[in-house]
Amino acid sequence: MVTGLYVFGSFARGALAPHDLDIDVEFEGDEQWTSHFVTALSYGRDPHSPIRRMLTGGKRGCQLTFNFRKQADFDLTTLWQKGDSLAVALARLDAIGADPTAGRAPRDSMLPEFEGIDAWVPRPYREALVAAVNGGAISIERMQLTDQPRSAISSVAAEHLADRWKQSSPLYRAGAAVVGYWERRGIDPGRCHLHGVDIRDEETPWFAGFGWRYFRSMPACLTDVGGLEWIEVVRPTLTRPLDCLRIVPLDAYNLRRALGTEPRAKVNDRRVGLVLSNVAHASRPGRNRAGWQHGK
Q: Which of 109, 139, 176, 245 places its Cα 20 to 30 Å from the Cα of 259?
């Protein structure tokens, strides 16, 4: 399934003291993967978690992106490609020479609103949002939504939620909380667009998404169709707090420029030891799921 590993950021530039390692994982899916992906999203789970566990063993210190290479507007350094031996990958790793002048990239992909939830906001998206805030294109407010029982929301919203998700789904919980927030502000949920679907009307000034699934639609929604706000539930869960970001457009032109394309990653920090341990893990006999081939 995995066809390539690419590094970028401070480590790729030769920084001497990176904190963690940014890796782009390129992979090809099949029918089984598609089924898994749809099921995971419907229950609010991270569909990429099996790949994360396979490559990192659950250790912290890695920032993984998936199939990001074609969208990036900067160069990524090849670490491994399907068919390469471990020796080839290690040689590429050694070829990334140390550069004392590189240092860590500035921590400019952070805002106070991201503190404590940054692990669930992909770094390229953080960069785009920071650029949009700094450019006066949007404002961001950190919020924590409260649970909303079915009996406390309008019938049109309750029917919409019931048609889409089981009440045991984290997405149902997130949707009900967003709807409750809208209704407490006097907003008709029938005029809202919830996680990719209009609740009732086709013209919807209010938008919400979960887990960044529709991040790339945000610029058009907040400019071309007259959106007034976007609420992003960062990580829908069944029991943990529902942290979210309320994004309000301020300048349509700058918003399109900041969020219309994948940003240039200035990312920081890398830990070489994690790459080596991941390579060793994937290279063990009988655990060749990442595609490592020996003796070539």
A: 176
> 253 and 119, same structural domain?
yes
Q: 276 and 248, same structural domain? A: no
- Reply yes or no on whether the pLDDT at 153 is more than 70: yes
pLDDT tens column, 39-63: 776 665 678 888 888 887 766 667 7
- DSSP letter, residue 263: P
Q: Are residues 127 and 7 in the same domain?
A: no
Say if residue 99 is in the same domain as residue 219.
Answer: no
Mean per-residue pLDDT for 58-82?
79
Whether the per-residue pLDDT at 281 is higher than 60: the answer is: no
**131, 251 contact by CB (below 8 A):** no
* 162: number of Cβ within 10 Å: 12
Considering the domain boundaries, does residue 290 fall inside one? no
Torsions phi, psi of 270, nearest 5? -160, 150
Contact 206, 191 (CB under 8 A): yes
Q: pLDDT class for 159, splitting at 50, 70, 90?
A: very high
Q: What is the pLDDT of residue 90?
A: 85
Does residue 289 form part of some domain? no
The closest of 140, 132, 81 to 114, measured between CA atoms, is 140
Burial of 111 (0-12, 13-18, 19+ CB in 10 A): middle
Answer yes or no: do 100 and 175 share one domain: no
Beta strands in the chain (DSSP E): 2-8, 21-27, 62-66, 77-81, 138-145, 192-194, 197-198, 206-210, 229-233, 242-249
Q: Which domain holds residue 240?
A: 112-259
State the pLDDT confidence band at 163, using cuts at 50, 70 and 90.
very high
CA nearest neighbour of 98 among 7, 187, 11, 174: 11
